[in-house]
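Design request, tokens follow.
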């Protein structure tokens, strides 16, 4: 039975524990104990060991827009560039790009990804490519099959948007229902947004998710214009439209929730909704800063996503939740560091339908992520401060070892199955 001795490990709360022995049996953690010195037979993990990080919101194919779409324009001009890319992807090019992008996530300590998938092209081939890509990259996948039926409220899908949809909500339900949970893959549902799905259609998507006990996600109030269009059409906010469609009767994740008002926050909190924040994307697209602390106080759980994948670094997302809110409120310490790590691990995994992922505890799936302190960023970190130091100063490049379901996926900072930069280079070159 392989045992791992962690110099420091996060077992919950706001401080790390020194000298933690983790026994792994197959894909699960069998025992967790403390020992000041390592057993010579144990594998030694120097640095801080965290549970697997959960990326609660990703669109893998957006990785091809990195570096090309950041200097000007708006959310809406960025969306046009994204549409142009979506218009020319095939299952083969999507699969190669997703495989390399998911492998980049593994290198960054992400062991579970929620892929919010809407580029269906009316068939299963794109989804199949994503499932194969995650498996080859060694990460656990929740395939969030998004219903996307309209180009805007009361508008048809035009241009590349035509590839996002199904003929009807019933056709979406039939297609999504053909896929079943498998080893390392879980199905979830989404109503893409109030722009793309009507309230009646949302009710069908919600019923589909509830019947399967599948997580349900939606983009909510990412941009002020979405709120304005929703108010004009329905006289209600997107949060209220989703609530009235019954969406919160299923385990629900609101992605972004950037422009929500006090009544929306109360609704989301009372329903115990998870809010998936994507701060690096929200700042790139000039979306705004969400009211994360107020949402948490109201009863929401928080999760984190890399969304447009202009950057794949959950350490940056973790600190952005706190630092962005400091700029808005003029206060420091809005979030406890343990709460930030819960968003990046256990609460994100739960939002993706994996209640047995995200804690270093007996019975949990054996996902271990070790952050080394041998870089210039973290050298000299006092052990007692390690949890905060990693939250505020680490980068994805400091991840040294990653284990998923008891299998080592990243060793000494390298992916065990592929040359990830070379794979990215190849997948991106084809799309240029
Ligand atoms: Zn998104």
């Amino acid at each position: 039975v392989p045992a791992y001795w962690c110099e420091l490990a996060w077992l919950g709360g706001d401080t790390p524990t020194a000298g933690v022995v983790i026994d792994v049996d197959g894909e699960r953690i069998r025992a967790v104990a403390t020992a000041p010195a390592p057993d010579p037979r144990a594998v030694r993990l120097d640095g801080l060991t965290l549970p697997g990080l959960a990326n609660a919101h990703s669109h893998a194919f957006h990785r091809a827009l990195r570096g090309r779409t950041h200097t000007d324009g708006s959310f809406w001009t960025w969306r046009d560039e994204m549409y142009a890319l979506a218009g020319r992807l095939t299952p083969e090019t999507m699969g190669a790009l997703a495989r390399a992008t998911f492998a980049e996530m593994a290198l960054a300590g992400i062991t579970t990804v929620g892929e919010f998938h809407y580029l269906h092209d009316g068939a299963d081939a794109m989804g199949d490519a994503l499932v194969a890509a995650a498996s080859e990259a060694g990460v656990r996948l929740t395939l969030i099959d998004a219903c996307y039926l309209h180009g805007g409220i009361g508008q048809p899908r035009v241009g590349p948007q035509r590839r996002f949809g199904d003929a009807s909500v019933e056709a979406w339900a039939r297609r999504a229902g053909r896929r079943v949970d498998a080893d390392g893959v879980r199905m979830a549902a989404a109503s893409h947004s109030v722009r793309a799905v009507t309230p009646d259609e949302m009710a069908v998507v919600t019923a589909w998710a509830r019947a399967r006990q599948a997580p349900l996600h939606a983009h909510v109030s990412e941009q002020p214009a979405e709120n304005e269009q929703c108010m004009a059409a329905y006289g209600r906010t997107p949060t209220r439209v989703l609530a009235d469609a019954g969406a919160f009767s299923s385990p629900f994740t609101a992605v972004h929730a950037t422009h929500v008002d006090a009544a929306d926050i109360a609704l989301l909190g009372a329903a115990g909704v998870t809010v998936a924040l994507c701060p690096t994307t929200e700042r790139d697209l000039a979306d705004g800063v969400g009211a994360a602390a107020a949402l948490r106080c109201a009863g929401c759980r928080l999760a984190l996503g890399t969304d447009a994948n202009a950057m794949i670094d959950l350490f940056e997302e973790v600190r952005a939740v706190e630092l962005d809110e400091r700029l808005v409120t003029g206060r420091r310490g809005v979030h406890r560091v343990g709460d930030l790590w819960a968003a990046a691990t256990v609460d994100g995994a739960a939002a993706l339908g994996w209640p047995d992922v995200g804690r270093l505890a007996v019975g949990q799936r054996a996902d271990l992520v070790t952050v080394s302190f041998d870089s210039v960023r973290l050298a000299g970190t006092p052990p007692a401060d390690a949890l905060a130091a990693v939250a505020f100063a680490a980068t994805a490049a400091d991840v040294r070892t990653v284990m998923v379901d008891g299998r080592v996926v990243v060793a000494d900072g390298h992916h065990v199955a592929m040359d990830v930069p070379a794979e990215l280079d190849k997948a991106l070159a084809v799309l240029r």
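Comment from the thread starter after seeing the answer: thanks! The chain is about 35% helix and 20% strand.
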